[in-house]
Design goal:
Distance between the termini of chain A: 37 Å
Strand order of the largest sheet of chain B: 8-10-7-11-9-12-13
Number of strands of chain B: 13
Oligomer: heterodimer
Radius of gyration of chain B: 21 Å
Strand order of the largest sheet of chain A: 2-1-7-8-9
Shape of chain A: globular
Order of helices and strands of chain A: HHEHHEHEHEHEHEHEHHEHEHEEHHH
Helix content of chain A: 25-40%
Number of helices of chain A: 16
Helix content of chain B: 25-40%
Number of strands of chain A: 11
Largest interface: A-B, 47 and 33 residues
Strand content of chain B: 15-25%
Radius of gyration of chain A: 21 Å
Distance between the termini of chain B: 44 Å
Order of helices and strands of chain B: HEEEHEHEEEHHEHEHEHEEE
Largest sheet of chain A: 5 strands, parallel
Shape of chain B: globular
Number of helices of chain B: 8
Chain lengths: ~375, ~325
């Protein structure tokens, strides 16, 4: 067993988790509703069976932290339309392939109809595609949060340095803290604490979340993705609630530095400016998106290909927005498990591997 | 310059004849195939198992195997899962113009070795060469014919409450090895395809007189999907213990990195065996006595409750569903 694996399995140790669960129960003085912002946390909670072990007095809601789920219908419609163009290769991470756009069309069906859609594992793979296909325009779908944006920025910088002109990026990147600000400002969402996303935090550190505690009195804990990580984070949260405190705590110190990764932030801020962004079900949030800065505008697919984001009505009956805001649980959506299933998803929350609806459908025994 | 496959080789003329005799018959031949008549003349008595499968794996060479041996193993295993001794194989090749002849030779040699090891004869075949772009290098279809040995052939519909679920070894090796190889990702050296013919190991279970209720090789869709099929066919609940499912640390780590679930990764050299509890120990002993089953273990039990579902008790003691996989697994964004 390699060291990394040993390290990871240590945080799944059943004895350790049982002990943490007991500690949590002894500290908890009042019912606790927390939101796990990140979709990977949602899946981890279900996949480990943790949700069935947490006391009934602890309730968890899924937040807007699945990058596929928050991609707006209009953005999906835009890249699906682009996929129909000749001499365009769409380069994308695999998650997006099954996200339905208007009329139920997906990148998968577009591919079957002749569109060139290539799954990549890194934005740099898109750069290689562009080099290998000099007569085509490769458009990388820039979906994701602060976790992925720096690598996209680095790819764009490399492309510029190498004079590669047939690589473009549709930047639909979104930033997590402005979304959390919009959520807490919206009285409809009521949570006692946030489990803050580990991956995003490796880049941005703790500072951007401070407002949650200082302005709204809601504590937050940055945490990892193993059961012991999550339980430890809940202990921090329960302790803060019991003591009437609110702070932003780093419980994922093995991966997250409190100051984040300044180099990654710098490269992201060099290539992108902050701008407005559309969030599925939430709507427009100022300063929550990454748009190309003037120095890198040549890589902006929207500008280079003269694309406009046309307003697309949300999918009929889909309550992904309410799920992402923690207003309802996935199984409370009127379409859950009937009109909307993994086989025939209406919204992306049922598609994405990090989607909360998909996690509910896939793992929750009591719903079957 | 490396010799390339030309459309001429599929013309039916001299070039085709040379390809068949110098490559296919030379490596896959036997007295029956050697007749080179329009059909093979074989004798079979009693109940017969037949299975066919097409192999389109990309890449055609991957850590631990290649499309040629896989085309033998896959069909031999499917026939064996019915409690049959696989005897004959037919194979059809769809070959893309421009294929490296050295690659084709490697594949056919590998098929020949795999067939010999499995104890099956290739008795009929076909080759078609299609224009470049009309196929991806090599597609192989194999059909297997075997003689039923089991007194009552195992079936996905025969799992009964109280039965024990056994797997013959580590899950997910093949799926991750192929995916890693396709995408140029390198994993720990232990992540190799498990591609192998299971017929000898499986038949030893029947020779020992064990009443094996279900035998399935969890290929595409992996353990999770296959167990769901069995649970539905047999109208039973299958209860698994996560900590008992053998998954190599390197496979678990690779899956964690890519956002994949090892329970849904393909296997090409593993068997799921569902037997009455009284026969479980003997089944394990026989599997473990074979090099392909040395890591065999019990992973769960069949119950009457939760019919049609597969339920997993996690290492933490929580419970969750293992649903059937919808479509293919796709790597995640973050």
């Amino acid at each position: 067993m390699d060291q990394t694996t040993q390290f990871s399995t240590a945080f799944q140790d059943p004895d350790l988790c049982r002990q943490l669960l007991r500690t949590l129960q002894s500290i908890q003085t009042s019912p606790l509703t927390f939101m796990e912002v990140c979709g990977t946390h949602t899946v981890a909670i279900f996949r480990s069976g943790l949700h069935s072990l947490l006391p009934d007095t602890i309730e968890h809601l899924s937040g807007p932290g699945c990058p596929v789920c928050v991609t707006h219908d209009s953005e999906v419609a835009a890249y699906l339309k682009l996929a129909e163009r000749d001499n365009v290769i769409i380069a994308t991470f695999g998650d997006l392939l099954r996200v339905p756009g208007p009329n139920g069309k997906t990148l998968k069906t577009a591919k079957a109809e002749g569109a060139r859609v290539e799954i990549v594992y890194s934005p740099f793979d898109a750069l290689t595609l562009a080099v290998d296909n000099p007569t085509e325009t490769v458009v990388f779908l820039g979906i994701g949060f602060e976790t992925t944006a720096p690598t996209v920025a680095a790819t764009v910088k490399t492309a510029q340095a190498r004079g590669i002109s047939n690589l473009l990026v549709m930047s639909f990147h979104k930033l997590v803290p402005p979304a959390l600000a919009a959520l807490v400002a919206d009285n409809k969402t009521s949570v006692d604490a946030f489990l803050l996303p580990g991956h995003v935090s490796t880049v941005i550190g703790l500072e951007p979340y401070r407002f949650l505690a200082s302005e709204y009195g809601v504590p937050g804990v940055v945490t990892g993705f193993e059961p012991a990580d999550i339980l430890q984070a809940l202990i921090y949260v329960a302790r803060m609630r019991a003591n009437g405190e609110a702070d932003i705590v780093n419980a994922y110190t093995r991966a997250v530095a409190s100051e984040g990764n300044p180099q990654a932030v710098a490269i992201m801020n060099e290539v992108f400016d902050h701008g407005p962004a559309l969030w599925r079900g939430i709507g427009g949030i100022d300063g929550s998106g990454l748009i190309f800065s003037n120095d890198y505008a040549e890589f902006d697919a929207l500008r280079a290909l003269d694309l406009t984001i046309e307003e697309t009505p949300p999918l009929k009956g889909c309550q992904c927005g309410d799920v992402l805001k923690g207003i309802i649980k996935p199984n409370q959506c009127r379409l859950f498990g009937t009109a909307c299933t993994p086989a025939k998803p209406v919204g992306p929350c049922m598609v994405s591997t990090e989607g909360s609806c998909a996690a509910y459908y896939k793992y929750r025994l009591e719903l079957s | 310059m490396a010799e390339k496959l030309l459309l001429d080789y599929g013309s039916g003329g001299k070039a085709s004849h040379r390809l068949v005799t110098d490559l296919f018959v030379a490596n896959l031949g036997n007295d029956i195939l050697g007749q080179l008549d329009d059909a093979a003349l074989i004798e079979l008595n009693g109940k017969v198992a037949v299975s066919t499968d097409s192999f389109t794996v990309d890449p055609i060479f991957f850590p631990g195997g290649d499309i040629g041996s896989l085309a033998v193993h896959g069909t031999v295993n499917d026939v064996a899962m019915l409690g049959a001794q696989p005897l004959y194989l037919t194979c059809g090749f769809i070959l893309e113009e421009g294929l490296d002849m050295d690659d084709l030779r490697r594949i056919v040699v590998s098929m020949g070795e795999a067939a010999q090891k499995a104890g099956v004869l290739v008795i009929a075949g076909d080759t078609k060469v299609v224009p470049r772009g009309a196929a991806d290098k090599v597609f192989i279809n194999t059909t297997g014919i075997g003689k039923i040995i089991a007194p009552i052939p195992p079936s996905g519909s025969r799992a009964q409450p109280g039965d024990v679920v056994i797997v013959s070894g580590y899950m997910g090796d093949h799926g991750l090895a192929v995916m890693g190889s396709r995408e140029g990702l390198t994993f720990d050296a232990s992540v190799q395809s498990d591609s192998a013919a299971l017929n000898h190991m499986v038949l030893s279970l029947f020779e020992a007189g064990l009443d094996i209720h279900v035998l399935r090789d969890p290929t595409r869709g992996g353990l999770g999907t296959t167990l769901n099929e069995i649970a539905t066919q047999s109208e039973v609940g299958i209860f698994l213990a996560e900590g008992d499912i053998p998954i190599r640390p390197a496979v678990a780590a690779g899956c964690s990195f890519l956002g994949l679930d090892p329970l849904y990764l393909a296997n090409e050299g593993k068997v799921i065996c569902i037997v009455a509890e009284k026969d479980a120990a003997k089944t394990l002993e026989i599997l473990k006595g074979n090099s392909l089953g040395q890591d065999a273990c019990i992973i769960g039990q069949v119950m009457s409750e939760q019919a049609g579902k597969v339920i997993l008790t996690t290492s933490l003691g929580g419970k969750r569903m293992v649903n059937m996989l919808e479509g293919e697994q796709l790597p995640r964004i973050c």
